[in-house]
Amino acid sequence: MAWIAASARRRGFNSKNFNPSQSSELNMRVLFIFLDGIGLGENDPAINPFVRVEMPHLRKLLGGSTFLYEAAPCESKRATLLAVDASLGVEGLPQSATGQAVLLSGRNIPAELGYHYGPKPNRAVAATLQDGGLFGRFTKAGKKAALLNAYPPRYFDGIDSGKRLYSSIPLAVTNAGLSLFTKDDFFAGRALAADFTGQGWREFLGFPETQILDPRDAGIKLSALASQYDFAFFEYWATDYAGHKQDMKWALEQLEVFDNVLDGLLDAWNDDEGLIVLTSDHGNMEDLSVRRHTANPVPALVIGEQKTRQEFTQNMKDITQIAPAIWNAVIND
Ligand SMILES: [Zn+2]
User: How many domains does the chain fold into?
Assistant: First the structure.
């Protein structure tokens, strides 16, 4: 029973909320890894990079499976993979602004509005994120939340000049009263580059002094950063770009990097203390025969202790169920 006492200490348990039947439910931290435009597609090497790429660490995690429609549902020692619907009963292809707003709010925003919308939020989508979504709710509840991506100076210049609009995720963060991480945060090691390694900062953003992280080290770093928060979010958007460009080579390179990130992350991550949740807003990269998004289901990959995972994924069918499951895992009241 020592683990109950330990969990009680961690949660600030009192007799009022003590429920032995729920005693396995610990206060978890959650690391949300958002991969834009990743669906679960067909087992077809002509169109789907997930069929061609090796991804040995993802395969090891999933007991030999990978991100394919035929692989889900999959339950392994450390992870659960489900295929979840991102179309949400609304006509047309799912889009980023609404999809990301769903992931952060748990609301069926496409159904409320009558359409999918993106890539950047219009006024109606932005209004649904006024409370900051999960970032706002956790902050209000006294929990620590952060978006771990570092943004370069020119991003803030674009926002300040009105030339660039926030996408749904940074919009939610700023609405929650949280700051986006800057160049200074990046160089001080408080945030990660959007490409994990920092290569983009060195080659495209004009910071040749950037120290490039080995992908595996970036995964270890991601775990370390996430351990400082109750709710940490990392956004990877290049997957959607490769999908729109129908660029198989770039897609394969990205997935290889990500697989090595996963290797470091899984080595460093303590399953007893937190869940890693990886999902997407819509399909795209898994079908490079089309330039547009797809209506394929997206992966809900949950890594962590088995019972917590089961509670998290119970009856999970679509992306509206991710945010409430994260809330319950962290707050657990
Ligand atoms: Zn897109």
Answer: 1
